[in-house]
Design goal:
The structure is a single chain. With 72 residues, this protein is mainly α. Helices cover 71% and strands 0% of the residues. It contains two helices and no strands. The protein is elongated. The termini are far apart.
Length: 72
Amino acid sequence: MDNSKLPINQIIARINDAAEMAREIISEANIFEAIIEGFNEAEGTNLKLTDITNLEAAQDWIDEFLEKYSDV
């Protein structure tokens, strides 16, 4: 849809929605980086967020990490 034909309040609402989505994504990435940092310290590795390219594998990795270290 051509945003130039929308009322200003709808344009602002769309911008706010996009900003909220961006904040959520950044928050999730920060949480994931913290988990990776904890794993690196516990396992003596040097993984980085950019090393994780497959989301399904990443979810399995997170589940395994949380299962292993949630009782610590």
